[in-house]
Design brief:
Length: 296
């Protein structure tokens, strides 16, 4: 019989032996052998941290696989590490544990989305996450290893959060492509590069400009509470913050001088140096934070 339970103090030595196995170190970003004292200190901190989750899969009384979930850099997201007992490789335990963990209350109470990273050459690990419904977010390199990042929404609230999009060009297109991949639909999308340029005029978008009026109307008509702006307008009228009460998020390709925007107001967030490869991930991160804040 297979069951899942949280980590307990007796798991400390067992997890150390699994982590130091050559096959486990082969697929780790940090492949050095962990000393017992280092591991014990880490494990004590892990058990004492209410933000972290550790689950063990038991089969006929024997621990066969473990999964750890730790807070990512943005609220509402947990990062996954999963491992199988060296005696139980290639028996499907990692896939089974991953699938069950995504519905476990210890996980769903702490996050609306989970993420994971796998080495591109680790085909078995790639297949585990793909079969569990994870979507490929992008590629990266760290410590000499090429990896892919996976994401999976685990809360239905995530796909229902009321937000709008405004902008034009490659950033908006890349963001829309990512949202479609995760089956997330914005309340509205305004393609307004030409209108933004004409309205901005001197570089200052006013509350009475055609674009601002359209955005206000859309907020009232659709119930959108957050707005994501791609490259335009150059400046945000503070009056719009009253209509998008959960914030306005400006994503821009180029860096800018400190005076390029209005003084930051509560609910206005800016990200510079955004690319078509990163905009989708940033959008998901911000949405996770908004949804988690609403839940909490």
């Amino acid at each position: 019989m297979k069951t899942i339970r949280p980590f307990c103090a007796d798991d400390c030595r067992l997890l150390l032996s699994w982590r130091n196995h050559p096959e486990a170190r082969r697929w780790s970003f940090d492949s050095h052998t962990i000393e017992p004292g280092e591991h014990e200190a880490w494990f004590r901190d892990f058990l004492a941290d209410p933000r972290r989750v550790g689950l063990m899969l038991i089969d006929d009384g024997l621990p066969v696989a473990q999964i750890r979930l730790e807070p990512a850099s943005h609220p509402g997201i947990l990062t996954i590490s999963i491992a199988t007992s060296p005696d139980q490789f290639r028996k499907g335990y990692a896939r089974e544990l991953l699938g069950q963990a995504m519905h476990h209350p210890e996980v769903t109470q702490r996050a609306v989305m989970v993420r994971a990273e796998t080495f591109t050459e680790h085909e078995g690990s790639m297949k585990v996450f793909e079969s569990a419904g994870f979507k490929l977010l992008g590629h990266g390199t760290r410590h000499g290893h090429e990896y892919v990042e996976w994401r999976l929404p685990i809360s239905p609230v995530f796909t229902q959060f009321p937000f709008g999009l405004e902008g034009e060009g490659p950033l908006l297109a890349a963001a829309q492509e990512m949202l479609e991949k995760f089956e997330i639909a914005p309340r509205f999308t305004l393609r307004t590069e030409r209108l933004s340029r004409e309205s901005a005029g001197s570089g200052m978008l006013t509350a009475s400009s055609p674009l601002s009026v359209q955005l206000q109307d859309q907020a009232l008509a659709t119930g959108a509470r957050a707005l994501f702006v791609f490259d335009w307008p150059e400046r945000i009228p503070t009056e719009l913050l009253a209509h998008f009460q959960d914030g306005i998020y400006v994503l821009r390709r180029a860096t800018s001088s400190a005076g390029a925007y209005l003084e930051l107001q509560t609910g206005l967030c800016e990200s510079y140096g955004v690319t078509t490869a990163t905009v989708g991930g940033l959008l998901l991160d911000f949405l996770c934070g908004l949804v988690q804040r609403r839940r909490g």
